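Moderator note: this is an archived Q&A kept for reference. The question asked for a predicted structure of one protein chain; the sequence and the answer are reproduced below.
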Amino acid sequence: MGLGETVERRPVCVFRGPLRRLFIQMIRQNLYKTRKLNTMYTTFEEELERSGKLAYTNVGVSMLPLLRQDRDVMVIEKAEVYRPLDAVLFRRPGVKGRGAYVLHRILKIMPDGRYWIVGDNCVTGELVERRNILGVLTGVSRDGKLIKNSDFRYKAYVRLWCAPYHLRFFILRMKHLTKRILRRVSKRIR
């Protein structure tokens, strides 16, 4: 490794602030496990390979309203089969192999085997290859309560908000357009 080069090793399951109590509760329920290797944390891939599960908070707004940034905890598990409407964790390829971890939802499986993936709060998507997918979302811990993907509320959310992509696309576009117009009007008023 040369000067200025670092190996990306994201810490797994780092909680702070109000999530501390939830973190302790998850350890007791055996939903959360991590280990240090030579004072370095394991990567998402290593943790999923080792234990098959991963619990982590998200950063960003692409999965709103399902996941709130630094407040909800997502539980990811390894899976062999991915279906449409599954929320999957994948690694977006980057420079020198250092890509970003992204959790988005599969909307369509293409004939060539790639997946069309879009965030719940996004209007654009991307094609992802199977080898870049690490695992599938199996539950969300919100305010200390675990909501599994087999829960009625989760299934209703997926069917009503995620499945009708074209309707969601229209609603989000109108929301962004309205915000833009309101910003312009408020600037002219000042």
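Archived answer notes: Helices lie at 19-28, 44-51, 152-162, 165-189.
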